[in-house]
Target: SLC41A/MgtE integral membrane domain-containing protein
Amino acid sequence: MTVFLDLKERLKEAYTATLASLVISLIIGFFGGTFLGKYFNKIRSAYPGILVILPGMMGLRGNVFGSMASRFSTMLYLGDLEPKIGEKRVLRNIVIAMMLSLIPVTILWMIGVIKGIRYHSFQILLIVISSTIFVSLLLGYFTAFVTIFSFKRGTDPDSVAAPLVASMGDLLTIPSLIAFILILEHSKTVFWTSNIGLILLLLFLVEISKVRRTELLEFKELFVIITLLALLSLISGFTLEKFSHLIQASVILGFAYPSLLSSFGNYGSVIAAKTSTKLHLGEIEKFFSVEPFLDILSLFATTPVIGSLINIFGIMLAKLILGSSVSFSLELALTYPLMALFIMFYSYTISYLLFKRDIDPDNVAIPLISNNSDIFGTIYAVLIAKLIVGG
Model:
């Protein structure tokens, strides 16, 4: 009886708190998807290197800032962080996150060039660097606000922060990339000025935040992980670039791709964050504990809603932006919950095993899960596109 009452409470939380954040993040993600769907052909033809880097950039934002949200949440519960945006640790974490983000995306660009995608390569590098600095600053403070605000309101940050942070990353990533592309095509002077200004801003923030070498070394583990995961994301990038014609031909997935990936990452990140906090608090003693599986089951109950909304929003945007009539995808609606369930079980397993090996899930599990969700999601999107297009 206690288990059923507990499940009932978690289902209530899943539908009142987590589902709300998932839907909001889905809407936010589709804002980014609107830009991707509208300019997909331009990117494919003039800036193909961006398609190789795009999944890595999207995953990197979720990796770095999702991990930061989980870390803030744990610190708040342990009393190691004051619930204030102006807390000095907030700015330091944001600056460190910016520094952590720049090297992996530069490596992704280099590999794309080495693999032969060299058209507009130097311009793409500048676009990627400027976008990373700009988005990291906005997303960093958004992450701090969401985590601290939910904590002060008595809502578990682990239930709402990861989905909102990941989707805000998607919202900002694609429009910022396209904005810099349009600026480049409109005025090279403005393009160069904005690039120089953002690089100077980064140097200024590094100086005033007074990030010490010892603090950077604390994030060595996270930096190595996200760099390796960025390299792993090339699987998604080259898959997306190779099968971009199918994604574009399916129409609906051109708009839904960012939200599809972020939603899978959201489910995985919520489970990882919840698992991490409970492991740190000693609430999970063995792998087959009831606690985490109740979390998974309650979240699974929301997946049909999210899968249907992805369909509906994709159809609406295809009609509104391109004037295309697209049918509801039963293939997507029926398989989405199963894919999300797989990712949640995968997320819990990874988090548990890492913690048992004295590796903090806050620093490793969420980045790993976010990255792997992007790979699984990209392959899933290509398979669904094949079913829709019949190619």
Remarks:
- The mean pLDDT is 82.
- The two ends are 51 Å apart (CA to CA).
- The first helix runs from residue 2 to 46.
- Residues 2-389 form one domain.
